């Protein structure tokens, strides 16, 4: 295991048991008696990733002194965590469709097209399964909250698509979109952990805000990593935002502070036709055409500010291993390079 | 208004008031304060079509002697009908994505790609809105039933995609897929109308079966219309199934009964590369390569059998204008050429 995995494991130690139940429930939810569907579900199991959102549900519940070992309703907590992960998984499957469409512009292939078509349907099926699972819970809270949050996520992604190549976008608009895309589900995970099954909205509000701030910070850092040329460090391909026309926070700041010539060069990096399809070409052009460091510093400072604000909220929680884990997790958000 | 529209209007006369409320609720559900989303929602309003599914909810409720004019819970009936229409609308938006992807193979265009990307997200948003609306109802029945049915629809579409170009498919497999694609939501609409808010599963079972049979018959006829060369009569482009590799009931019968040479010609109609992109080319080749009439007659006979079976179930309902309307509607399914 990499040091990263080790520290993540330590992070979730207080909820190891419920996390194991969550994974079992998740596995059980990703099966089908339709062979074609079953194949696809096996295929996408690899998307499951770090399962931070599910962990946030359980850490928040644990911080409130609740776990599945207690009252019957709280035996539902791993189900709630699994539902949050299923919603996230469905968004990933549909992101993959969109990436797939992108790739397909270069290599048109009927086979790819079927995959793509099936992926849209599979994402729909996973959303529906998540909602159906939520209707089996005693409290309607999860159904209500997650069907609302899913709308916020989609609206944010649509707004982002509509705002491509908009170099005049305000930092406020960027943050509203990034909060909807990423912060909203982090916030819902924390809120559900805090108040499920019968806590008041007030009980969940503080930790929802924590989740939304941490999630926004996570997205800001994610966008910064995409601007790093080093795919080795990132552990994934970088420069995808500039290729997709996504003007992220660091670039928005850099553009605002640049003189007209540099602004033109930044726009060129995103739009010059001859850079289309050149691997890493647009990012390379962007990094050469302006000094992004001041903009990146501003973005990093904003992420730190958000994490700091989130951490203050943690002091409202009783001291304990779960609260410490949430504190450490918020550190990860800033320090991660992955 | 065309004669068709006139007769459809007569059909829904018994529920005109609730249908108007449904359309109002539907209109209210298709708004957003995110401008980009709002534009898209206005754009897709044109998909709303005949709203037969919503009408089935209300006709079934009316046949049970219930309408929004009565008990408070039944004031929710137009909301239930609107939710069913929203689920249908979301499936249409995602079908459109898949068609869009198809078209894009020929005319690659970034603009089309954004539309496509946004359409995936918009369909997701409409699904989520439908589920959220269902969580506002007093009874969890709609949330439970429709999240289950949505999974059946998606699984059916995935199975259909996986079964493309499968000329050995059994009529049973075709019917299972067509029932999932179309019958399932018809059945859910009828079941919800029959038992919402607090009827037993037994109360809904008979009319669910009616809906699934009528829906399957509707799909069989729809597939037959796609095999008619005459787009004028069909009022939409035909031959799309053979282009997409969908082997529908009439073709399955024709293939089973054909000698090896004709079977090879049928396969050619679906697969010959030189027919790719030739408007109507594959359908023309198919119609020339074999006599589809016997297969079409078998398919039409099966649809008639299903409608007949559904009609028998209607005798369980109290006599009245709503029951008569459901009877007439089942006639439409067989006689429609649109």
Gist of the model:
Two copies of one chain form a homodimer. Chain A is mostly helical. The first copy, chain A, is built from 16 helices and no strands.
What labels describe this entry?
homodimer, Farnesyl Diphosphate Synthase, 338 residues, mainly alpha, 74% helix
Mean pLDDT level of chain A: 87
CATH superfamily of chain A: Farnesyl Diphosphate Synthase
Helical/strand content category of chain A: mainly alpha
Return the CATH topology of chain A.
Answer: Farnesyl Diphosphate Synthase
Task: Give the overall shape of chain A.
Answer: globular
Helicity of chain A, as a percent range = over 70%
Give the strand tally of chain A.
0
Radius of gyration over C-alpha positions of chain A, nearest whole angstrom: 21 Å
CATH architectural group of chain A:
Orthogonal Bundle
Query: What's the helix count of chain A?
Result: 16
Beta-strand fraction estimate of chain A: under 5%
How many structural units, i.e. domains of chain A? 1
* Pattern of helices and strands of chain A: HHHHHHHHHHHHHHHH
**Main pleated-sheet profile of chain A:** none
* Poorly predicted segments of chain A: 100-111
Greatest interface and its residue counts?
A-B, 48 and 48 residues
CATH uppermost class of chain A: Mainly Alpha
Give the N-to-C terminal Cα separation of chain A. Answer: 15 Å
Assembly state: homodimer
